[in-house]
Design a protein that fits this description.
- The structure is a single chain.
- This protein is about 40% helix and about 10% strand.
- The protein is of the alpha/beta class.
- The strands form two sheets. The protein has a six-stranded parallel β-sheet with strand order 5-4-1-6-7-8, with helices on both faces. It has a two-stranded antiparallel sheet with strand order 2-3.
Length: about 270
């Protein structure tokens, strides 16, 4: 039985939770922050002439842009980058800005979206034990926010330093379950697929992607706390892909795969 050399993790609803009632609420807060930023000098030193559009008008333009980009990108597993969506949003309301200004506006828009994230309580303990056991750690995240902003945020949460590999869909241009994201992470870690596990909460993106790459797959199904679990993708379709090797309710159960070694038959709860 080969030793487990690496364990890679999803981020959202795996390492961090989103204690908010809906993504609609988050969108409204983000658009409010965007509007506030438009009322100030932009990152390139320019200012808009006149007052920014209303929050409702910006929100409507944003939602339309999201729908347009989702229709074009999702079927091909392409990432819908926030910069592109925001550029289209602003163009819809008659605002065109420089790339430098747009980067600053994305940072303002992203701040409320990232501020809601809370690291699950067992994460620090689990990562420390895995690292202490010599297991190499990596992250693969579907996230449409630009990489520098995401990496700064992960660092603030204490979720950057423990990981030797951080693969973000916004930087690769593809989303899980596309195999390339998993292959990039494995290459960065220098481990073979059969020596690595992937831990995530979404069977469509995480289990299917990991299994296609030849990795072991751990599905996280945390206990239902009665709180609505917002999903930006809205992907609640039945899953009929390859089953996970293990299903867990707490990340502490991941420690068992270090002893288990290679990928075994699909496990239960």
């Amino acid at each position: 039985m080969r030793r487990t050399c690496a364990i890679l993790f999803d981020v959202g609803d795996t390492l961090v939770g989103f204690p908010v009632p809906s993504w609609e609420e988050v969108d409204r807060a983000s658009i409010g922050a965007l509007r506030d930023a438009l009322a100030r000098p932009l990152a390139d030193g320019t200012r808009l002439s006149g007052s920014p559009p209303s929050q409702d008008r910006l929100l409507e333009a944003f939602e339309q842009a999201v729908r347009e980009y989702q229709a074009r990108t999702a079927p091909r597993l392409l990432e819908m980058r926030a910069l592109d969506v925001l550029r289209r949003t602003l163009h819809r309301v008659g605002i065109d800005v420089s790339e430098a200004a747009l980067n600053g506006l994305e940072r303002a828009w992203a701040t409320p979206r990232l501020a809601i994230r809370r690291v699950f309580p067992e994460v620090g303990e689990v990562l420390a034990q895995l690292s202490g056991a010599g297991v190499r750690l990596g992250l693969i995240s579907n996230i449409w926010i630009s990489g520098p902003i995401v990496r700064e945020h992960l660092d603030v949460l204490g979720l950057l330093r423990p990981f030797e590999s951080v693969v973000l869909s916004s930087e690769v241009g593809l989303i899980k379950p596309h195999r390339l994201l998993f292959d990039v992470a494995l290459s960065q870690l220098g481990v073979a697929p059969g020596e690595a596990w992937y831990v995530g909460d979404n069977p469509h993106a995480d289990v299917a992607g990991a299994k296609a790459a030849g990795m072991g797959a751990v599905l996280v199904q945390r206990p239902d706390d009665g709180r609505p679990r917002p999903s930006p993708s809205g992907d609640f379709a039945p899953y009929d892909g390859p089953p996970p090797d293990l299903v867990i309710r707490d990340l502490r159960e991941v420690l068992a795969v270090v002893e288990r070694g290679t990928h075994g038959p699909a496990g239960g709860r």
